[in-house]
Specification:
The structure holds two protein chains of two kinds. By secondary structure, chain A is mostly beta strands. Chain A is about 10% helix and about 55% strand. The radius of gyration of chain A is 22 Å and the shape is globular. By secondary structure, chain B is mainly beta. In chain B, the strands form three sheets. In chain B, strands 21-23-26-29-32-35-38-41-43-42-39-36-33-30-27-24 form a 16-stranded parallel β-barrel. In chain B, strand 9 and strand 10 form a beta hairpin. Chain B starts with a helix and ends in a 9-residue tail after the last strand. Classes of the chains: A mainly beta, B mainly beta. At the A-B interface, strand 1 of A face strand 7, strand 9, strand 10, strand 11 and strand 12 of B.
């Protein structure tokens, strides 16, 4: 049963926005294992895809150094002389990423009662710039465009454009916690560069931190507040207050897995609706080459709203490929 | 049926018969097995003194240096026991993997690596070509993949893996006995090794990689680079001086020991090195550099490092001498950053630390540069030299200098600019502090100078016909404080804020037709202070507050304080009933005390 096609335009829009949230969250969390440690998994794809903080993470290496005192052994000199070299650090501030992912969901319309499954294809690209401004202050900007095409419920197809610009500051006195501020613009449109369905300007501030257990194993957590400033239509706008935490393990140079959770409070601008949203995610990614990786993901979302009609549960699994270039 | 039986027999034989996983290919010198002998899984192989061997594995090879040992494990695995070895994997496009283990560690070699293992002390891995994955067995996810040129030195006591450093492959390949130049000849993977070295050399030429003066010799992270060998065989004899000419460009983690007689003074000559590309590598000292107390005999005892060019004491360096032994660094210029220099126990006058520059380096801010460092000795002396043209610059930046018996910077015969800044602390708690710039400028900025409070003196002398003395937001504490500068017409002494505690007397003298200028809030805690200048001025908004009497020798009419447009000089005694205002006395008064 196509439960969407028969809806009036305003209701369809609402469903699409709900879908956008679900898809973005699913996509964002499935995207990249470094994502959760660095950013708001729900709304900031640029962060989720690793641009935010990736430059700082390289400096956040608190691994130990070793200079043991040791006796010499017979044959010691046969090893040879080791003259120490210094290699210039190279930082590529620009990045380009293109991805394609197919996903299955058991609740395509995020409905509380009539759950319908569907598969959909998500494709798109992202261009990012990230660099140090001075000292511990970093600048980030990105533009992202993605399309979502459903197999059955084509009325729910949409295009999403998004721009981010922000600053990130490392706080050494708080054990290298990162303070993030960001402005984002969202534009949701009908499929195929169609009419605008929704747009918003969002201001965000957050704190995020990573604890390294070992070189390839870490726990991360963060707090974010995202304020919707100019939603169009107004009723679809909402503020989000979220926290996230997770665990990431790099099993080999190529293979890593991740478990994470995000909990958020959504306050809609109309004041009539408030939601609690919980997302649990498991993902794995495999680097096929230096620039191409494959990933699989599974997420489970529970949404509880002040309006019972907006309660839903949603399970998504997917697999995809991502090409990533830095220059 | 018969065919089936044959196949079953073959399978059974194959599964039960131990296939030799390794075979000895070559033995130079002595070893526990002969050439062509098979080494089944579980067997060990060891080399003897001055020997090298090569063992063929199913997917690679192992070369062992002298007194080295390993055990052949299952599946082509190499279990390290001790020594120096090269491990390589076969293959061209798709490299095989040789698994290597040491207690607590796993290595996967897809290329060629030099490995040194001293049980309980260290493991050192250097990748010559390809990659090697190093993993800590005890911690999930604690692994790293090293690439060609990268080296890892692991302390088994560490709970995490250290960061790798990059080393010069050309230098390593030409000096290691296990590579092409050794008795075993080129390794099976030698073309790959040469290609990696060549690639790195290209990066050097392209400026992507630069050589540092820091190098290690041999496998051990801490090596005795040389032993003092005196001519006298009597171990109880003492020679007055011994010079060691080892042509050392760098010393790192060195303990100097002795053979033969003792010496009173040991001089270590260090030299700069011309590289193939024409660049010069300056001599340097890094890591822990110490001398066995047994090296020295008689008195006075001294260790001197002499460099033919600028000498760099690298970050983290720790140079020390035994008790009652002085330490001197003598070079064209000295660059000491984030290092520790300690002479003896840092208490006796015999434990002197001397830093001496005999030249200048125009590209550097200072010729004796002590930054972020700790100097500790009975006495500390820093000086330039007229033999190098004079005009050296001494800088102490964010450093601590502790010398109970006294600190001397500069001398009257050598014009030397002196700068102490950025929270530096100089303490001579049983003696005095003297800056003598030989007529050049002196600057003390945001720092603390502390001499003995009852007998010590702080004397900062930019000369009677010399340079400007500037004291800014600094804290000076002594029995007597004397500060003098000179200018033909402008500011000779500038005191900009700060606290001055002098138990007996404080003197600020501006020589020449010049000015003693105060700015900011200056606090003086002394029973008597003497200001002497043709012009004494307190800039508007500034205050000079003294707890005791202040005598000001100044040209009449050029007392620019305590009147409109200028700041104030007040004594605490004249701010209470019965107190005394500063005494303003003509500059030419015969009562003016000498500096």
């Amino acid at each position: 049963m196509n439960i969407v096609a028969g809806l009036p335009r305003s209701s369809r829009l609402f469903v699409l926005i709900l879908l956008l949230t679900g898809l973005v969250i699913g996509r964002a969390q499935a995207q990249n294992s470094t994502s959760l440690q660095q950013a708001d998994v729900a709304r900031q794809q640029s962060v989720a895809q690793g641009a935010w903080g990736s430059n700082v993470a390289k400096e956040d290496d608190d691994s130990t150094t070793s200079a043991p005192a040791a006796p010499t052994m017979a044959g010691d000199e046969e090893y040879g002389e080791q003259r120490i070299l210094l290699r210039k650090a190279s930082w590529a501030p620009w990045s380009f990423e293109a991805d394609i992912e197919t996903l299955w969901t058991d609740n395509v319309a995020l409905s509380s009662q009539y759950m319908e499954e569907d598969t959909y294809l998500r494709t798109g690209f992202r261009v990012g710039y990230s660099n140090r401004v001075v000292g511990n202050l970093f600048f980030n900007a990105s533009w992202d465009y993605h399309t979502v095409r459903h197999n059955e419920y084509t009325d729910l197809d949409f295009d999403l454009g998004r721009g981010d610009i922000g600053l990130m500051y490392m706080l050494p006195k708080l054990r290298d916690t990162f303070l993030v501020t960001r402005y984002s613009y969202y534009r949701l449109a009908e499929a195929g560069f169609g009419n605008k369905l929704y747009d918003d300007h969002v201001a965000s501030v957050g704190l995020q931190k990573t604890w390294k257990i070992s070189r390839g194993q870490q726990i991360f957590a963060g707090l974010y507040a995202d304020w919707s400033t100019a939603p169009e239509p107004w009723a679809a706008g909402r503020h989000e207050y979220s926290l996230f935490t997770g665990w990431r393990l790099r099993l080999t140079d190529a293979l890593s897995v991740q478990l994470s959770y995000r909990g958020a409070r959504y306050q809609y601008r109309t004041g009539e609706r408030q939601d609690w949203n919980h997302v649990m995610l498991a993902s794995a990614s495999y680097n096929i080459t230096d620039w191409l990786r494959a990933g699989v993901t599974g997420s489970y979302t529970v949404n509880r709203s002040s309006g019972a009609a907006f309660d839903y549960e949603n399970f998504i699994i997917g697999a995809g490929l991502t090409a990533h270039f830095e220059f | 049926m018969k065919t089936q039986l044959i196949f079953s027999s073959i399978v059974c034989w194959a599964s039960l018969s131990p296939l030799p996983a390794a075979t000895v290919e070559a033995v130079k010198g002595g070893a526990s097995a002969k050439a062509a002998q098979a080494l089944p899984p579980g067997s060990s192989f060891a080399t003897k003194r001055s020997s090298q061997s090569q063992i063929k594995l199913e997917k690679g090879f192992v070369r062992l240096g002298s007194n080295s040992q390993f055990q052949v494990g299952k599946d082509d695995q190499v279990n390290l026991r001790q020594g120096v070895m090269m491990v390589g994997s076969d293959g061209t496009k798709r490299r095989g993997t040789v698994k290597v283990t040491a207690p607590g560690y796993n290595f996967q070699v897809q290329g060629t690596a030099l490995i040194a293992y001293q049980p309980g002390s260290y493991i050192k891995i250097t990748v010559l070509e390809g990659t090697i994955r190093v993993a800590l067995q005890s911690l999930l996810g604690e692994f790293e993949t090293l690439e060609a040129g990268q080296m890892l030195v692991i302390n088994p006591a560490d709970k995490r893996l250290p960061d790798p450093v990059e080393v010069d492959l050309n230098r390593l390949v030409t000096t290691s006995v296990l590579t092409a130049g050794g008795a075993l000849g080129p390794a099976p993977t030698d073309p790959f090794i040469q290609a990696s070295a060549s690639g790195q050399g290209g990066d050097v030429n392209d400026g992507l990689v630069t050589r540092t003066p820091f190098s290690l010799r041999g496998a051990s992270p801490e090596v005795t680079v040389f032993q003092l060998v005196n001519d006298l065989s009597n171990p109880n004899a003492v020679v007055r001086e011994k010079t060691y000419d080892g042509n050392h460009n760098s010393l790192s983690n060195v303990t100097i020991t002795r053979q033969g007689a003792k010496t009173q003074e040991l001089k270590v000559n260090m030299v700069s090195q011309i590289e193939n590309d024409g660049s010069t590598t300056l001599p340097s000292i890094g890591g822990n550099v110490t001398v066995s107390p047994d090296v020295f005999g008689g008195a006075p005892q001294k260790l001197t490092f002499i460099a033919d060019d600028s000498l760099m004491v690298l970050p983290g360096a720790n140079i020390s001498t035994p008790a009652n032994t002085a330490l001197e660094l003598d070079a064209r210029t000295l660059d000491i950053q984030n290092a520790t220099l300690k002479a003896g126990n840092g208490r006796q006058a015999s434990e002197a630390l001397t830093l001496s520059a005999y030249g200048t380096e125009s590209g550097n801010e200072f010729d004796v540069n002590v930054k972020g460092s700790t100097l500790e000795a009975g006495t500390v002396k820093m000086q330039g030299s007229v033999f190098g043209g004079g005009s050296q610059r001494i800088g102490i930046d964010n450093s601590t200098v502790t010398a109970p018996k006294g600190i001397t910077i500069g001398d009257s015969g050598t014009p030397t600019t002196i700068t102490v800044r950025n929270s530096s602390q100089l303490a001579a708690l049983a003696g005095s502090i003297k800056f003598d710039s030989g007529g050049r400028a002196i600057m003390v900025d945001g720092s603390t100078l502390r001499a003995n409070a009852t007998t010590g003196q702080i004397e900062l002398d930019a000369g009677e016909t010399g340079g400007v003395l500037t004291l800014r937001n600094s804290n000076l504490n002594a029995d007597v404080i004397k500060a003098r500068g000179h200018s033909a017409s402008g500011d000779a002494v500038i005191v900009d804020g700060g606290l001055f505690v002098a138990r007996t007397v404080l003197k600020f003298y501006a020589a020449g037709a010049s000015m003693l200028r105060f700015r900011g809030n200056v606090v003086i805690d002394s029973p008597r202070s003497i200001f002497s200048a043709r012009t004494v001025q307190v800039d508007l908004g500034g205050t000079v507050t003294s707890t005791g009497l202040v005598d000001i020798f100044v040209n009449p009419g050029q007392d620019n304080f305590n009147k409109p447009g200028f700041g104030t000089i007040s004594t605490r005694t004249n701010t209470i009933p019965g107190g005394t205002a500063p005494n303003v006395i003509p500059y030419n008064s015969p009562d003016r005390p000498g500096f």
